[in-house]
Amino acid sequence: MHVHILGICGTFMGSLAQLAKALGHRVSGSDAGVYPPMSDQLQAAGIELYDGWLPEHIADDVDQVIIGNALSRGNAMVEYVLERGISYTSGPQWLHDHVLPERWVLAVAGTHGKTTTSSMLAWILDCAGMAPGFLIGGVPQNFGCSARLGDSPFFVIEADEYDTAFFDKRSKFVHYTPRTLVANNLEYDHADIFPDLAAIERQFHHLIRTIPATGQVIAPADDTALQRVLQQGVWSEQQHFGEGSDWHWQLHQADGSDFSICFQQQPMARVRWSLKGLHNVSNALAAVLAARHVGVAPETAAQALSRFQSVKRRLEAVGTAGGIQVFDDFAHHPSAIVSTLQGVAAGLKQEQRLIAVLEPRSNTMKMGVHQQALAESVATAHQVHWLQSPGLDWSLQSLATAEHHYCHDDSEQLLAALTEQLQPGDQVVCMSNGSFDNLPRRLVAALQQREVSQ
User: Fold this and answer.
1) Among 116, 182, 348, 390, which residue has the least CB neighbours within 10 Å?
2) Which residues are annotated as a binding site?
């Protein structure tokens, strides 16, 4: 089969393309703005890439077009597919039909932590000799790729609540039919498609309805929104974790780099790793419990986590120059920003500063839904820089002025300011769910040049 994927450089669609290629299909695809790391993965897999929305990219021998959820009516290629009567489907539906049948699917859902928790879970299963397949919305550094078919019935998937396609407005995750479900957390997000939190909760309950009786739902005990979802009805086993439940953690280091996994107050296993933050400790426990559902002992899981190398762009250390360390983080929600910055701050020495550099870029942030929460989310940082990204419907300048932060109109101006102001010992966290004009790596290069010239 020859499939052509529209929106192929998105994290989900790019991963799907690699799975389709591994199944033996001919795969090509189009996107606007083809850039690494996904473009590198696709080209290495032998997938044909086309830049732009030109109908002639769809060859005459294409059997089916897979349309990403970023495309809508009016797009030239969408209109061409409809006009010519070419067979088309969504990415989640294609995955359901061609990859997931007869698989034990372990899905990770939630507003935050899906990519990291999915990566942890896949790594745990791999270390346990279970050779899982996976599709993850990022690149786990232990694997170096975002998707693979695997050599066993087990398949780990990052389960996103965003809508499926312009012709299917259900959440993507309702197509995945999981037997093990991790629901990490639930907050209001995706204001461009959901009017309120209740609408997202409804989609989560649609997912709950698809899990068989012998399946398992794993969720934190203290998440109010998820508890409302579960109260609507659960027909599967439930496993709760966190404060007030049987499964919880005990910190040995405040920054979350050393902790024990406990059951009914008794330590079961200990994790010492390079990750920071209580959010990652929570992610780890969720992954351990999901792995336990398919037979992996917590001690085995903890040993795997001690060798876990995180995910690209999830507080990824990109370099150090002049005693200044720079991180790249995929931030898209105020709660995630809080957790990440608190994790870094907990490991700082007294003389060190935490510098937060942010580009609000998600659709929800662009609409200004979280303005006040954004201002509060960076309270841990000693200094804050904002980039006014294109398409933002409100001005960051007023927020910056009120909070004594810095606001910049373009990345060159931001880079110049950081290069001038940063000092040895600073920990710089660059946060954006876009490319951020490659700012973290440009900053490291600029600091290296500054060090040479001094």
Assistant:
1) 390
2) 110-116
